[in-house]
Design a protein that fits this description.
Elements (H helix, E strand, L loop, with lengths): L1 H23 L7 E6 L7 E4 L1 H4 L6 E17 H7 L5 E6 L5 E6 L9 H8 L5 H8 L10 E13 L5 E6 L9 E7 L7 H28 L39 H20 L34 H21 L2 H4 L5 H16 L14 E6 L7 E9 L4 E9 L7 E8 L29 H14 L15 H21 L3 E9 L5 E4 L5 E15 L6 E2 L4 H7 L3 E2 L3 E13 L9 E14 L2
Parallel strand pairs: 2-4
Antiparallel strand pairs: 1-8, 2-7, 3-6, 3-7, 3-8, 4-5, 9-10, 10-11, 11-12, 12-19, 13-15, 14-15, 15-18, 16-17, 18-19
Helix pairs in contact: 1-6, 6-7
Length: 610
């Protein structure tokens, strides 16, 4: 009976192990699925819609093959189409039946070409078309969340939601690759393969054990089970008898029994096979009995109804700021204001251009501080699908114990982001509550009436406070405690006026004035219905002679002399300093005051008074 049970265990073990292995091999099916994207017409760009990328669940792998350099980038579908608005491209979309279809998209003709476009058309004959094509290369656009470049064959792993699309091209001029496909890893879980193989291995071991017991039982019960006939009495052999046949007593050797060592040799192969089969089973070969982890609750942020998508992600902002800093560093080294203008704008550009003039004439003139890049602590993008767009960022350098706040702007979908405002944060600055980067913030209109003070009035009001102090009508609207900039301006003016009066009070006069700068304010909303507002203020110092025979000399001021282009003047000089200021302006009805968050100040210009 033991042999019967052993055979039954062997058969059942073979069936279970075979079924488990079959689930992992012949019955499992392909581990990936791909779809080819047919491109019927040549175009410089191929846009793969997010619906195509999410035709199957899971991560996607883009494969594009062609001659030469192949470029691919992904970003928001709306941004991609906006970037392609004025060029021809092929768009791959998903039909209602689930098939991938591609069609050519041509730009809508402009109603009335501008004068610049007319000049460009006329200049195409002398090679300006190539310059335009190079300027519109897709490589390095700030709109892309990420981009890839490979030679001849591009393979890019992706994991994009439906609102994202992929752009495939070469250099933006030649035709995009036509051999393009998207593949997905297909989950083929076989939760019963592992248990079947392991249970089969256990049954095999049980069968071996039963087989050994059966053999042992048979050998113990071997021999006659009834009495035999009486045997004749044997006589001793007489060894002295010559020539007599000698009797020989022989016995067949006994069969060696299967001892513990033999049992181990029989059972070991079965256990080894079981162990190998067990080790070959991956995690998806077993039932997932553990409960799904419960996400920890986080602070909820209510997105206003109808709010649009944020302009950038944090990773995108890091890459943009790094590009701006690199371009600024190159311009600083070459003293090239034209190069700086490709990534800087507004007061930031004006101050650096002035520094380049001074450094070109004065070898000892120090360069402005490099633009900080990391670690990026705060990113507050404008939630807006159109243009221009703005992004506020705070970079906190733990090593230097300094922090900087900046504002970036992008004028249109083809323009790079430019740094327009840059200031150092106050040491004890308490930032207001801001929306997370994945939500973004609304840009506050310059004439907004929902703040304690409209952004377009802020620069003039603060300038009046710097000029008049407590006598200003706006004095009580600004928080004086912690405003280190106001204190430093007051102290500097008092010291300079005292030094001037010591030597030139009888022959000249020194006056100070502060006015709103020429650059428009930028404001992004906070969570408490307030706003962070960046403004530009100019401080103007005026030195005039009060005696008709006196002149103002600049022997000890090479900076003003270089900018003004004169060593002395009978009419006097004006020196202008540019201040970049960031304020927190509370919402209307708040009991808080307007707080200064950060500031920077650099010399901007000097002129002879006419």
């Amino acid at each position: 009976m033991r042999f019967v049970w052993a055979v039954a265990a062997f058969v059942l073990a073979a069936v279970m192990i075979g079924a488990g292995i079959a689930q992992r091999t012949v019955f499992q099916g392909p581990r990936s699925e791909s779809v080819d994207i047919a491109v019927s017409q040549e175009a410089p760009y191929l846009l793969i819609d997010g619906a195509v990328l999410n035709r199957l669940p899971g991560a996607q792998t883009l494969r594009a093959q062609g001659d030469g350099e192949i470029f691919a980038a992904y970003g928001r579908t709306a941004d991609m189409k906006a970037w392609l608005a004025d060029t021809e491209y092929v768009e791959a979309t998903l039909t209602s039946s689930g098939d991938v279809d591609s069609e050519s998209v041509t730009p809508a003709p402009s109603e009335e070409p501008s004068a610049e476009e007319d000049v460009a058309v006329e200049g195409e004959t002398d090679g300006s078309a190539d310059a335009t094509a190079e300027a519109r290369s897709p490589i390095g656009s700030d709109l892309w969340l990420d981009e890839f470049q490979q030679e001849d064959l591009l393979i890019a792993p992706l994991q994009l939601p439906e609102g994202m699309s992929v752009l495939v091209a070469t250099d933006g001029v030649a035709a995009a690759p036509s051999d393009v496909s998207v593949s997905w890893s297909v989950a083929r879980a076989t939760p019963w393969a592992g248990p079947l193989i392991v249970l089969g291995a256990i049954l095999m071991a049980v069968g071996v054990f039963l087989y050994i017991l059966g053999i042992r039982h048979v050998r113990r019960s071997r021999g006659p089970r009834r009495k035999g006939l009486p045997l004749p009495v044997t006589e001793p052999i007489d060894l002295a008898v010559e020539g007599a046949d000698k009797g020989v007593i022989s016995a067949a050797p006994t069969r060696r029994s299967v001892g513990p060592g033999r049992k181990a040799l029989v059972v070991a192969p079965a256990l080894a096979v079981s162990a190998l089969l067990f080790a070959g089973c991956s995690a998806d070969s077993w039932p997932q009995l553990a409960a799904s982890p419960t996400p920890s609750p986080s602070e909820s942020v209510i997105i206003p109804e109808g709010q649009q998508a944020p302009a950038v992600t944090k990773a995108q902002a890091e890459r943009i700021i790094a590009r701006i800093a690199q371009t600024a560093a190159d311009a600083d080294s070459a003293l090239d204001a034209t190069l700086a203008a490709t990534r800087l704008d507004g007061a930031v550009l004006e101050e650096r251009a002035t520094n380049y003039r001074l450094r070109a004439a004065l070898p000892d003139e120090a360069a402005l501080a490099a633009i900080p890049t990391k670690p990026l602590e705060i990113v507050l993008p404008q939630a807006y699908d159109g243009w221009p767009r703005s992004v506020m960022a705070v970079v906190n350098d733990d090593a230097d114990k300094t922090a900087s706040i900046m504002l970036l702007t992008q004028q249109d979908q083809w323009a790079p982001y430019k740094l327009t405002y840059l200031s150092s944060l106050e040491a004890s600055t308490q930032m207001p509550d801001l929306a997370p980067v994945y939500v973004g913030a609304q840009q506050v209109p310059p004439d907004s009436s929902f703040l304690l003070m409209a952004p377009d009035q802020l620069a003039a009001a603060y300038a009046d406070v710097l000029n008049k102090g407590a006598d200003s009508e706006f004095y009580d609207q600004f928080e004086a405690e912690g405003d280190q900039f106001r204190a430093s301006v007051t102290a500097d003016r008092e010291k300079r006026l005292a030094d001037f009066n010591t030597t030139a009070a009888s022959t000249g006069s020194l006056t100070f004035d502060t006015v709103a700068g020429s650059h428009p304010p930028l404001a992004l909303a906070t969570l408490e219905s307030g706003a962070i507002v960046a403004v530009n203020v100019n401080e103007v110092d005026t030195v005039k002679p009060t005696n008709a025979d006196a002149v103002i000399k600049l022997d000890t001021n090479p900076t003003v002399k270089t900018l003004a282009g004169a060593e002395q003047s009978a009419t006097g000089f004006t020196t202008t300093f540019s201040d970049q200021l960031f304020f927190y302006v509370p919402g209307l009805g708040s009991s808080e005051k307007i707080r200064l968050l950060g500031y920077s100040s650099e010399i901007l210009d000097a002129k002879v008074i006419n």
